[in-house]
Amino acid sequence: MNILLLSMPDSFEHMPEVVVRMPNGALSSLAGNVDAHHEVAIADLILVQRQVRETVERLVNQLKPDVVGLSVMTFQRQTAKKIIALIRTLHPAAQIVAGGYDPSLAPEAFMNAFDRSVDFIVRGEGEITFRQLLRSIENHGEFDGIAGLSYRRDGRVFHNPERQVSSLEGGDIRLPNRKARVLCGYTLLGKQVDVVETSRGCTFDCSFCSIIEMRGRNFHTYSFDRVLADIRDAREQGARAIFIVDDNVTLNVSRFEALCQAIIDAGLNSIDYIVQAMTSAIANHGETLAPIMRRAGFRYIFLGIENILENDLAFLRATSKNTKREDGRKSNATIKAIDYLHKNKMYVVGGLIVGNPDDTRESIEANLEFARHYIDWPYIQHPTPYPRTPMTKDFRERGLIINETLQEYDGTTAVVRTEHMSAEEVEFMRWKAERWMKARHFPFALLHDRLFMLRNIRRIFAHTFRGSSIRSMLGLEDERRAFERYRAIRQVERAYL
């Protein structure tokens, strides 16, 4: 059969497209795990944000796919439904499958008595479920025995039992198929970038996280041989930067140290690596962990700081993963973790969440001031009530959700208010401060990626300060006017079809 796999064009707006465009690793993993006789094509529509309709039309008309699979996050739901409607018009015979966080956690939004837009939903981990689904479609078989699948039959919707999460052992989940990609342009600061997964899952229970709802509290790992083969494949396909996309690779610090050494021993440390990490892991083990990370090629470290105030950390259920333990005492791990990373010449992408239920102007400003002083690139988000997370329940019970427009659930649009501030005021504070934090990192990026930055500095600056004018930057215009223009631009940017 001909299979077309699509990721949505909607993106988080922290960085301009010329700086970073990552592939959807789930789709390449799906492509690598279907039976070999199928023809599979992957299109990451984030690479063609201004030509979505034309690209989908071209691919559907060329490939005449028997099955179209879509990977969807919550803020991409509206775009996904428009793309599904387009595919139905272009090629009515295609069977349409939805997967990813949003269909998994809110299947009723894609498949109910009134919404017949998709034929199947693959819930949770998709590789084995999708493989079995294709076999049943091809052989005109039944679907009731496929765990993790939702489907229609005789006008009714059936949700099969959940699939048990994979242990990642024994080769059940094969290597990704990157050769199936039919679009190009994946980039990180001018270098071709790819994604690699070494483990899945996390045992923490942060209130904002969808991982727990997707797969429970667990942690499973791939063998190092498999991971190194995956990195080699990415490099052979042209990658010179790799994002380790694990949910929490630093959950097992000794394993992560051994992985870094394995990368060095395999001669794969000429690649620039990016990874997400817990502050507690870096703070408690940084003396030995940080140097080996740097030798392995790690350059940017996304630290899940979440917040620097204890009350907010408690609400986010993130206190324990941000705690340093020393001489029987506990303290916030963030500054120590950042210090270890900076001493070893790595840059910190600081993940912070502001606009929590009890936040005031003072508490938000405390986090912004911390970011100004300690982190290299801000990744500041607003709490977002994604389906079935504990955070969503809390916000809804307190009546703090003020925006149900899901395409704005992108983390940089404030869709909840606090007990003391409006959502708009929270977003304005974040926007006003964050632009200048990003600009401060430009000289450091120039040192490492001189040619790329010289070629693209105007585009990067324009994206970072879009909505602003010379007058607003000189203080001759109320910055709220610039903020209003920025929000209007964002509305236009979200219209992909």
Word description of this protein:
The structure is a single chain. The protein has 497 residues and is α/β, with parallel strands linked by helices. It has 2 domains: 2-159, Response regulator (Rossmann fold), CATH 3.40.50; 187-465, pyruvate-formate lyase- activating enzyme, CATH 3.80.30.20. It is 40% helix and 17% strand. It has 17 helices and 19 strands. It has helices spanning 25-32, 52-63, 77-90, 101-105, 127-138, 211-215, 224-236, 253-265, 279-296, 310-316, 334-343, 361-374, 390-397, 423-448, 450-464, 470-473, 479-493, and strands at 2-7, 20-21, 39-44, 67-71, 95-99, 120-122, 149-153, 156-159, 187-188, 193-196, 199-200, 220-221, 241-244, 272-277, 298-306, 323-326, 329-332, 347-353, 377-381. The strands form 5 sheets. A 7-stranded mixed sheet has the order 3-1-4-5-6-7-8, with helices on both faces. Helix 4 (101-105) links the parallel strand 5 and strand 6 (120-122). Helix 2 (52-63) crosses helix 3, helix 8 packs parallel to helix 9 and helix 9 runs parallel beside helix 11 (334-343). The two termini are 28 Å apart.
